[in-house]
Structures are given as C-alpha cells and as structure tokens.
Amino acid sequence: MRIGAHVSLAGGLELAVQRGVERGCEAIQIFSQSPRRWHPSAYGREEIAAFREALAASPIEAVVIHAVYLLNCASEDRDLRAKSLKSLAHSLRLGEQIGARGVILHAGSAKNSSAEKAISRAGQTIRAALADSDGCALHIENTAGAGGTLGRSIDELEALISASGGGRRLGVCLDSCHLFASGYDIRSAAGIDRVIEEISAKIGLARIGSLHLNDSQAALGSNRDRHANIGAGEPGRRGCGAYSAAPGFAGLACVLGTPGEDHKGPTRAEVARARAYRRAGAKARASSSR
Question: Angle of helix 236-244 relative to helix 189-202, nearest 10 degrees?
Fold first, then answer.
C-alpha cells in the first residue's frame, strides 16, 4: 500500500510533489484545477515534464487526481452536465500526461429525480468523458449517502459502472469515512472483509483502484459526510488499521483527506500515524489467524 495525502497545487504542478515529500508521502492526490472554478488549468509540456522529473526523483510512487466537487454528471441541467463532461475529460487527459493511476470522481446527485434516471445520466456523461480521453482510469468514489448523492452502496457503484459502459478503465475509490457513514461497519477486520467480499462478488476485486483513509465525525449509517482526523472519530484507530491492512488493498494508493491538526489538511505526523495504524492492523490480523 502507498500511503499519502491530498496536497495543494498552489504555485504549480511540481510543487505538489515537494509538498508530498515534506509530508512523508508514498502517494499524493491533487485536483486538476481550482476546486472553486470551472475554468480548467492549462499545463504546458515543460510543466508536465518538470512534474514527472520531480516525481521520478522522489519516494512518491503513486499519483491520483480528484475531479473537482463542482461536477454533477447526473444533473438534469444539460449545461451543468456539459460543464461536468468538459472538466472530467480534462482531468482524464491530465492524468494520462502525468502518469496518474486514476481520476477519482463523485458521480453526482439525483436531486429531485429518481436514482435510476440519475445513474443513467451520469453513465452517459462518464462514457463521453472516457471517449474524449485515452488511457487514464476513472475511479467512481463511494459516498456517505446524503441527499440524492449516487454511490452510497456497492449496488449503486455496480450500477454506475454498468451505466458507464463497464470498460476496463472504470474502477472505484473507497473512502472509509463514506463507507462507515453509509452503514458499512468497518470497525474490525471482519467488517472490512465483508465489504471486500461483496465488492468481489458484485463488481470484482480488480475494480478497486484507490482508497481514501478518513475517520468520520458522524455515526454509523448517519449518511453525513463529515471527515475527522484518523484516530479522532469512527471507525477509529482499530478500524483505520483494519481497513488499511486488508489483503485486498495491497499495492493501492491510500490517501488522507482529513482536516489535519491545524485545519490545513493532512500533516506529516498524520501520514506517519496512518502507517502505524496499518502496521497494528496487520499485526492484529496475523494474530487472529493463528
């Protein structure tokens, strides 16, 4: 597993690598553009080359891009879907250029329509974005289930993948906070193993492309998306350790998207804590199997 954190792109692509190194990351997550604006960031060949050179010279082994939160691929508003398509395709093309393992996407919200129709609209938008790009994978993220957000269950993730064409570039990103808030009890190795078994049966284990490691401020099944620093909420130290030590997750990029101790995002200390929790989780799993 490659443990790391979401880092800022402020000042340019290359500085994201530096921020990851400063935090002791083996993996980093970045936005492809400003998270508050629709206008995509344009990166030239020199910037792309500088990023790749900095990455190759660093201990960071995996990069993922998170599509900006403005996107709603499932919207009934055609203009919003068109903007979402343009931004998502841009992210996928950038992912190919910088060698990202995938682009992570919140598929969108049903708002006032049925989930079935919203999934169909999201699938059409995602298909178009994949057709307008080449190579980079797309990881649909599970959600906490607030309002009409899509991806609140493994069944909905399966439906989204199917609606999006089911191609080899499609996968999922699992967020521990969202799993817990949407009702999956992952506070133990047995709990996360049940989730992996369900994914294996319905989607396929190979579809798990990336991970988010976050604690939840809200209760099990609350459907509230409230990230907490790891060890400061639920599923807590034991749950975070069980989650990150699951055998089905070996080799994946696992990034923290927590508030951080100073409310400026994950710190070096928290990345180190994540590794310690993983070691404890692996030790507990090994002891229980004896």
Answer: 40
